TrEMBL record:
<dbReference type="InterPro" id="IPR003959">
    <property type="entry name" value="ATPase_AAA_core"/>
</dbReference>
<dbReference type="InterPro" id="IPR051396">
    <property type="entry name" value="Bact_Antivir_Def_Nuclease"/>
</dbReference>
<dbReference type="Pfam" id="PF13175">
    <property type="entry name" value="AAA_15"/>
</dbReference>
<dbReference type="GO" id="GO:0005524">
    <property type="term" value="F:ATP binding"/>
</dbReference>
<dbReference type="Pfam" id="PF13304">
    <property type="entry name" value="AAA_21"/>
</dbReference>
<protein>
    <submittedName>
        <fullName>AAA family ATPase</fullName>
    </submittedName>
</protein>
<dbReference type="InterPro" id="IPR014592">
    <property type="entry name" value="P-loop_UCP034888"/>
</dbReference>
<dbReference type="GO" id="GO:0016887">
    <property type="term" value="F:ATP hydrolysis activity"/>
</dbReference>
<dbReference type="InterPro" id="IPR027417">
    <property type="entry name" value="P-loop_NTPase"/>
</dbReference>
<feature type="domain" description="ATPase AAA-type core">
    <location>
        <begin position="104"/>
        <end position="277"/>
    </location>
</feature>
<feature type="domain" description="Endonuclease GajA/Old nuclease/RecF-like AAA">
    <location>
        <begin position="1"/>
        <end position="55"/>
    </location>
</feature>
<dbReference type="InterPro" id="IPR041685">
    <property type="entry name" value="AAA_GajA/Old/RecF-like"/>
</dbReference>
Amino acid sequence: MIHKLHIKNFKLIKDNSFDFKPLTIITGTNSCGKSSILQTLCFFINTNILNIEKSMYIQNFTRNLYIFDQMRNKDLHEDSIHITLNEKNIINITKEEITKNTEYLFDFEENFYYLKSNRNLIQDTEKIQNNIKFGVSGEYIGNYFSTNSLKSIDEIFYENPDSNKILNYHVDKWIKEILDLEISFTTNESIDIILNGFKDKNFSNYFLPSNISTGLNFATKIIIIGLSLKKGDIFIIENPEIHLHPKAISKFADFFAFLVSKGIQVIIETHSNYLLSKLRYINFKKEFKDEDCIIYYKDQQTDFVPIFIHSGKFTNINREKINFPTGFFDTDLDKLMEIR
């Protein structure tokens, strides 16, 4: 579990400390440093592993983080970058070297799962491989589902002793809940490849991922990964709202609150006011605790501001009601209210 993070001199972040909760939301205006918070966590992924292919995969998707002149804050012009995780794990980066003094590192796709924003559609076919579960773009989702679709999900998700425990049942259930579609993701192995597809309720129509909506593609990846986790895992998602209509985005707030209720830490970067508004309502209905959620907001002029939710209202740390910072929600909303 991530509890605290301190970042100094990294990209747009000059010197900021962050408290993390089971549900941590990072939001704000464009190009203000939101993704930078998530990227610093990748420095703590363990690459000293026996699986060479997996180690190379991790190094490949993090390699741009190691270009010092691209990483350091352009205003500070300092000679080193400092990142501290949970107060005990320290990484110092200079142009010459990276020094790690860490007691703990994340195990990629064992307890640390990352889904970046520039992900592609589910591939129509995937080459069979056993090194990566999902990939940071969800590019191996078919491989995982082919092997695990008929296996039981973790016991944290059991509704009752007699309930259906099979992964594909729960994936179908959440696709219906979030997208209001009675459709199933399917996989078939053929020699050395996986054939991915979607079938409707009666299995009478079959669709390749490339011939079905982008929103369904992206949502399916998030749902499968989320339902494949266990208590104590960390799930980081950049912009889960991509290509989804407002109702589906709102329903994903229910899904994330559900994962948090099962002991999974969910960290989200988002631009969606629909997601934030639904989280407020879920909190108002007491379906997740005040202390389980924190929001960080930033614009171009200010540092990250922590915002809390109490009884469905945005508050400061003292539970005093506040307005959400200007510049994020639609400033024309008050004008639209005049129509009433």
